[in-house]
Write a structure and sequence with these properties.
Elements lengths: L4 E6 L2 E5 L4 H12 L5 H34 L4 E7 L2 E6 L6 H33 L4 H6 L6 H19 L7 H14 L1 H27 L2 H29 L30 E5 L2 E6 L1 H9 L7 H4 L7 E2 L4 H11 L3 E6 L2 E7 H11 L6 H19 L1
Parallel strand pairs: 2-3, 7-8
Antiparallel strand pairs: 1-2, 3-4, 5-6, 8-9
Helix pairs in contact: 1-2, 2-3, 2-5, 3-5, 3-6, 6-7, 7-8, 7-13
Length: 388
């Protein structure tokens, strides 16, 4: 998301604003500005801007709830992005342990519940001051341009955010909680498959109700989004399961056994510039990164040995480790290659290119426009059948 505007950092998590957020501002002017004229319109627009700012502040807190819980379990969080459709916390990966996944998923709605609890006494006090006699009095004042209306609207928004996210359908938090519960009983892959079917069934039901009874195209589009995201989640977990079954030793490149540390740096260019393991007596003693070689040779490189520029802080992978675990480690280390060893002896190097090769072997047909069109046609067919 290079085009997103960075607002700042919260505990090393970048908070970004997507360009589509501008549509929210336009909505405020259209929705509140058209209700009055003159100073009344200015007051209404100001109210709308304050409300939207507070609501998206709650969305941000929701996503930070997920993020902080993930960080508590040692999972890296890249950033949180706010857009016209809400917020997204870019968590490196969801844990395989069902309990941990459920806690991370529930942390977001728990934040909204905490906000509602904090607002409740203030709303009751507002009702006492205004002389409200029934819940209907509170409902009638939602979105009224007043401090009380702001409190009620904020309470209402947090209620919707919490309940919507607790729906047992991917990509909502409730879908992850459902998957976590099922995974504890039948395993992650089967649990995900079941949760995906539940999500798609709910989405189809939502689409039918939206189009036939509510006549809401927006809700139907949300249902389509749920179907697509549920399918994507199922596909990701199938790929993950397949990569967990593959051993990294099967895909490591021998690469001439690495390069000795006493060799001239120019020796590393044989076969072209690349990341190379530095080995001594069959053992890995460092890594020679491609950019290190090119930078050193730009200055001439005469008399420079491999040992002079190699990275001695090397992390290795064992031949029996899964491709998935090794790829996750490479992501955490932000490296493009990792030496593979067996009983301390160098057995080859596993690179990002090799991972792409593995990926295409187990997933030769990525989800694309054709699959998206197939999903859309299937939904239309389901709606036609249900409406007969």
């Amino acid at each position: 998301m290079q085009s997103s505007l960075t607002l700042g950092r919260v505990r090393e998590i970048e908070v970004k604003l997507h360009p589509t957020f501008g549509l929210v501002v336009l909505y405020v002017f259209f929705n509140w500005g058209s209700e009055a004229a003159g100073l009344g319109a200015i007051a209404a627009i100001a109210f709308g801007l304050v409300l939207i700012t507070l609501v998206f502040g709650c969305v941000l807190l929701h996503e930070l709830g997920h993020s902080f819980m993930a960080m508590h379990y040692g999972i890296r969080v890249h950033d949180v992005t706010l857009s016209v459709i809400g917020g997204v916390a870019r968590i490196e990966h969801f844990p395989a342990k069902p309990r941990t996944e459920a806690l991370i998923a529930l942390a977001g709605p728990a934040v909204n519940l905490a906000i509602m609890v904090a607002l409740f006494p203030l709303i009751l006090l507002y009702g006492v001051v205004q002389g409200f006699d029934s819940p209907r009095d509170y409902i009638d004042r939602i979105f009224s341009i007043s401090p009380g209306g702001l409190l009620l609207a904020l309470f209402y928004a947090n209620t919707l955010i919490m309940l919507f996210n607790l729906l047992p359908a991917f990509p909502m938090d409730g879908g992850r909680v459902l998957r976590a519960g099922l995974s504890a009983i039948v395993g992650r892959e089967t649990g995900t498959r079941t949760a995906v079917l539940v999500a798609q069934a709910l989405a189809v039901l939502m689409a039918i109700v939206s189009l036939i009874w509510l006549h809401s195209l927006t809700a139907a589009l949300i249902a389509l989004f749920v179907v697509i995201m549920a399918q994507a989640e199922g596909r990701v977990v199938r790929l993950e399961a397949a990569m967990r079954r593959l051993r990294v030793g099967q895909y490591a490149l021998w690469d001439m056994g690495g390069i000795p540390p006493h060799q001239p740096l120019t020796y590393a260019l044989r076969g072209g510039p690349r990341d190379v393991a530095v080995t001594d007596g069959g053992q890995v003693v460092g890594m020679l990164w491609r950019h290190q070689v090119l930078n050193a040779l730009q200055g001439g490189g005469a008399g420079v040995r491999v040992a002079d520029v190699m990275d001695p802080e090397v992390v290795t992978a064992n031949v029996d480790e899964s491709v998935y675990d090794v790829q996750q480690r490479m992501n955490r280390l932000n490296c493009w290659a990792i030496p593979v060893v067996e009983d301390g002896q160098y057995r080859g190097i596993f690179t990002a290119d090799r991972f792409v090769h593995v990926y295409h072997q187990i997933a030769p047909f990525p989800v694309g426009a054709q699959q998206l069109a197939d999903v859309t046609r299937a939904i239309r067919q389901w709606i036609r059948e249900w409406s007969r």
